Amino acid sequence: MLEFINVNLYINEQELFSNLNFKINPNEIHVFMGKNGVGKSSIANAIMGNKAYKITGDILYNGKNINNLSIYERAKEGIYLINQSPIAIEGVTNAEMLRVALAEKNQERVDIFKFNKELEEICQKLDLDKSFIHREINVGCSGGERKKIELLHMWMLKPSLIILDEIDSGLDVDAIKIVANSIKEYHEKYHPSIIIITHSNTLINTFSNYYVHLFDDKKLIKSGDKTLAKEILEKGFKDYQDMANVISEN
Amino acid sequence: MNKLLVSDIIDLSNGVYDLTCQNKELEINILGDVTIYLINTSLELLKINLNKESNLTVYHLNFQNLKDLKVDVYQNNDSKIIFNSTFINDKNRDLLINNYINGNNNVSKLNIRCISKKDLAQVIINVFVKSNTKNNIALEDLKGINNGGLIHIEPNIVASSNEVIANHLTTIGGLNKDELNYLLSKKISEEESKKLLLNSFIYGNMDDYIKKESGGE
Predict the structure, then answer these.
(1) How far apart are CA B191 and CA B184, in angstroms?
(2) Architecture of the domain whose range is A2-249
């Protein structure tokens, strides 16, 4: 599904990561962890194709090199990113945007009755008032509402690789449950690969199996199974600092 | 909604009017609370007189039949005008608004948006606040998007009185890159994404009626 082969990542000529190697298979969940500012969101944005990031090495998606694909082309391939702070767009409603996206995807006019019904059902699952469907994208919405709206878009667009950048931050206890259940339900129904960037176990505890990657000092310093997340969340990042130094020295 | 075919001069009182103009010039006298829609008119000169205690909202949208347009607005005492205008040019076009505030307790809010597709769109907005007047508010919000053409915007407020609140905001630029990337990441092509963003800009200072009536660009 997604593979990084000797990837170096830069922004404004500055190196953020060097020699990144990892592979995410279909239906797998991978958790990215690391200190604030280490660059996890940059990896997410680079996967999505943000032109601000320069890449050397190869990013493969379903066996195809996607280094030169635009954001749109990557989205069409099935890659979907929910940013930490989703932006608001005045004057464009959620319904309008999704209608255009689905009409393009399916190359036919959207059946408005079916479309509205589907949106309303998803809103109900997300405990999101259905008035949001015809409201401008994320305008005047709280952080929690924005993240639910991004999930609403996800359900409609049906991506095959989902990158969740701290979707669990800033959510209240009820919202986090709803968001986690929605992601789990989507995973069970459509079997996408998921990358979760997080600092807590609230969301990842929803899943029985997942892989963990720890980033520090411009490197992927350790990968493991879910026990690694438990270890990190118990001990903190400090214990892994030496490991990062050793990798750097070598 | 009153749909009116108007010629040179008209008095409008309390109501909502969708005006179709027969001629190049039009003079309107406003009494009470009035809303006017001017959609794709070929007006070249519009003169608006606001009587005491009148309150006018204008929605002016032009992306067809666009001519150079001069608007003169006269306010004396206790009046309010909100002038919302959006136009799209595909050749050299000028919009000149002169707003004369000659008395007390007036509000003028001029919200102008333009998209320049080709050649030059020139927007010159002058608000003149007469000396020895009190409690007037003059606000100019002028936005332009270069979409293949050039834009020149001049926001001028000439206040000869100390007792006026005057403010102007001008922005000229392209489409917001973050917004464009956001839509691209939702499987919407660049062409359709730009269309969505331009439409949101065009109708950003319009209401639902004008969106429906104009049928989009």
Answers:
(1) 10
(2) 3-Layer(aba) Sandwich (3.40)
